[in-house]
Design a protein that fits this description.
This protein is of the alpha+beta class and 473 residues long. The radius of gyration is 42 Å and the shape is elongated. Helix 1 packs antiparallel against helix 10. The chain has 3 domains: 249 residues; 88 residues, no CATH class; 110 residues, no CATH class. The chain has 10 helices and 19 strands. The strands form 6 sheets. The protein has a 5-stranded antiparallel sheet, with no helix packed on it. It has a 4-stranded antiparallel sheet with strand order 7-8-4-10. Strands 2-14-13 form a 3-stranded antiparallel sheet, with no helix packed on it. 25% of the residues are buried.
Length: 473
Amino acid sequence: MAIGSVTISGMASGLPADIVDQLLAAQQTRLKALKRDKEFFTGQQTTIGDLESKMLALSTKAKELQEASAWSPHSVTSSDSDRVAATADSTAMAANHAIIVGQLATYDTTAMSAASGKSDPTVDMGEAGSFDFTYNGTAFSVASMAGYSLNDLASAINGIDYGSESGVNASVLFDGSVSRLVLTAKDSGTYKPSGAGSDTDRIAITNSPFTFGQTTAPKDAVLKIDGIEVTSTKNQVTDALTGVTLNLKSVTSGTVFDADTQKITSDGSAINVTIANDETALKTTLNGFVDSYNAILDYVNQNKTGSLSGDSLSRSLVSQLRGVLNTPTGSASSTALTPFSTLAELGLRTDQKSGKISFNSSSLDSALASDFNNVSRLFTSKHATSSDTFTEGVAHRMADLITSLTSSTGGAVTGKKDGLLARINRLDKDIERENSRLEKVKERLTTKFSNLEQMITKMNSAGSSLTNALKSK
């Protein structure tokens, strides 16, 4: 609450007109000190909140480095991606593969004959029986077609609960003369029933008043990988090469395929698919971790003479974070990993003035080239059982430390924030009380000097009257 100014007019006493304001100003020393304290601690509260956000950002980067995918990124190239494209996940292994495609997988498709077709797919077909079919050997049914148009039947088939099976897509096709129901398997390739001697179609109509015929026979994709023939029900081949997905788009040029034997009889032009360790992506992830760590150091350094002046928490946080980087990582079989147990051995450098870190690129490249797996374990090593006592990897220790510091129950950062909030709340109450006190002082001084002016004015008036009376005699 602001203390308004007071002006006493007349001032018969000869005192300054703003005498009350001057006296109040002399009494506002404590109020000003309280407001300065509140401004400082409010600023510190904001700074600690921002510092916590930067710590959580570092934790996110650390958690990324805990994942195997961060340490096994791969780049994939295909010599003809219009025919064979490829992707690789973290489990893939660097290699070069020669791919030959002899046949693409197709979807089993069955269509209503032209003779059974309908001139208007929206009109009741006049059928009351069921429509039954099997998919991958499992029976499914539309119990009654009573009142159904062709469109209604297609919708009913699409609405069937196929359970563990993928089922069919039902659609209505106008061929230029009549509309016909078309059933297409959702699974490509042939159906391979358990214990059967050969592959079979996926769709079979078992009861229908309409005539159906197969328009596309299901076929499996047939390809060669490094000279070894591979069969897949899908054109997206995920189980041939560990961690690699091959997307087959077209038969390779010059390849001869025997449809009767389902074999490639002449290879044609092979497509080269190359999987390589993407160290650029890995270093980008590592540099993201470094940048997040340095952002904390920059922020603390920028505010250590301001809102963090004299703050022990920020100094302690930096010390603990630095300790994580400098502590050797262990393993289940030894107290320290070899040949790399600290980040310094990977080329991590610390600026002596700012405390910021950076990787020596050539040292990191050399470490990745000489022992990629141990570089990974330096970050990802983790206790497998509760009895393990070795020092875990940097990524786990950093994330665990930040989780502990920012925990809502007992975290040092949370405790600091709670303490600052409590202090600011106390200052607000102290400021409110001091404003109330000063308001009363103002009222008292205003009354006092107003009365003084009135009294002096009356005395002056009486003196003037007496003087005039004496003069008249």
